[in-house]
Amino acid sequence: MADEPSLTRWSFQDFKLFYDAKFGRKKGAESQNGETTADNSHSNGSSSSASSVSSGNGHVKDSSELAIYEQYRNQGGSYVQTNGTLSNGVSDRPQKSLLPAFDSAETRALAEGLCRDIIRGSPDVKWESIKGLENAKRLLKEAVVMPIKYPKYFTGLLSPWKGILLFGPPGTGKTMLAKAVATECKTTFFNISASSVVSKWRGDSEKLVRVLFELARHHAPSTIFLDEIDAIISQRGEARSEHEASRRLKTELLIQMDGLMRTDELVFVLAATNLPWELDAAMLRRLEKRILVPLPEPEARRSMFEELLPSPTGEEELPYDVLVDRTEGYSGSDIRLLCKEAAMQPLRRIMTLLEDKQEIVPDNELPKVGPITTVDIDIALRNTRPSAHLHAHRYDKFNADYGSQVLQ
Asked: For bias kind Low complexity, which ranges apply (predicted)?
């Protein structure tokens, strides 16, 4: 038999026939009729589709052929038909490939780079793991979760919101909320930052944005999470004060967002920012739901302290009321740092004893870390300061001007 051509140059039918002949798996109809095998039909080493699939530079022109082979390879070679059904019990219709059929190898290469930003599997963040933020949770469920679960109700004027903005002080849980949405809806989650769509090559940034939305439509229902969106699409100024490449990138993102709002595809853009007042007005219009993620309230702070600093069994309960009263203006990230500082105090006492020893103490002889005391918590409160309380009034003003509210 002649040299075997590259498998990526074959159509699915050609590859299936070659695989049957190569490993002795023939279709029942062929074996009964005594027809010639695929080995003889391809003995001349040529294929009608091979010449049209590959170009002179070795790139594949028709990516659907390559996608079929990738699907065959990922499923362990189970595309062998028996009476019109695959041997693994699945119908003979190929599953959705990782990449859609792009028109050029350059676009396909850009898409492969963006595929690295897809979170494989579920982010595994539940609503219950996010303390407080009941208003933000309710708005997100109304805007994203319910339209995916019950699409019958969200048609016509009630079509789902395609753009959602999460804004608020840093460390309040905006990224956690986005991952909770992806976990609840079981959508394909694109975790995109500025480095994902900005390129040094002229014209590639706009193409990356366009390919990103094509991938999201291909994997729908999907969620595009644009973290720190103010770094991508801040307010557009005059031509002299803004680089041409940045302006083209912003324009392409606005065009893709506008096209997304005019379709019924379940593709949601979830953006997060700490500086909402720096966003362009055209992007604010496309981000229809603008949800404030505020600093945690007293009830939420108490839940965090009880989870991060549980009271020792049989010991006096830690002063949670004091912690709640003295952490006004702390973000969720600040509270975690405070609890970490309090937990370090008993360990520091042991480290002081170990530093006096000349030799390293074996693991089985190390002393146990004692419980956290009220004095440790007081020291931690004096050593930890809030990081996001100074601009709280600006977020409240922006929320009053542009934010979405739940009116009872």
From this structure: 40-58
Burial of 267 (0-12, 13-18, 19+ CB in 10 A): buried
Place of tokens 């940034």: 205
User: Of 63 and 269, which is predicted with more confidence?
Assistant: 269
Residues 6+ away with beta carbon under 8 Å from 228:
193, 194, 272, 273, 274
pTM, to two decimals: 0.69
Backbone dihedral angles phi then psi of residue 166, each to the nearest 5 degrees: -105, 115
**Which tokens in the block code for residue 240?**
């002299």
Contacts of 50 (CB under 8 A, 6+ apart): 5, 9, 10, 14
Q: How confident is the model at residue 28 (pLDDT cuts 50, 70, 90)?
A: very low
Quick one: pLDDT at residue 301? 92
Query: What was the pLDDT predicted at 105?
Result: 78
What gap in Å lies between CA 1 and CA 380, rounded to an integer?
A: 77
The tokens describing 316, both together, are 């006096």
* 279, 235 contact by CB (below 8 A): yes
Least confident of 28-37, 167-176, 332-341, 344-353: 28-37
Residue 302: predicted pLDDT: 93
pLDDT score, position 297:
92
DSSP state letters, 126-188: -GGGS-S-HHHHHHHIIIIIHHHH-TTTS-GGGPPP-EEEEE-STTSSHHHHHHHHHHHHT-E
**pLDDT 10s digits, 33-74:** 444 444 444 444 444 443 443 443 344 444 444 454 455 455
Q: Of 187, 271, 182, whose CA–CA distance to 225 is shortest?
A: 271
CB neighbour class for 79 (10 Å; exposed up to 12, middle 13-18, buried from 19) = buried
Structural tokens at position 344:
């370090």
Q: Are the CB atoms for 250 and 204 separated by under 8 Å?
A: no
Q: Are 184 and 122 in contact (CB under 8 A)?
A: no
CB 237 within 8 A of CB 194: no
At 240, is the pLDDT very low, low, confident or very high (cuts 50, 70, 90)?
low
| CB-CB neighbours of 98 under 10 Å | 15
* Residues sharing a CB contact under 8 Å with residue 14, sequence separation 6 or more, in sequence order: 42, 47, 49, 50
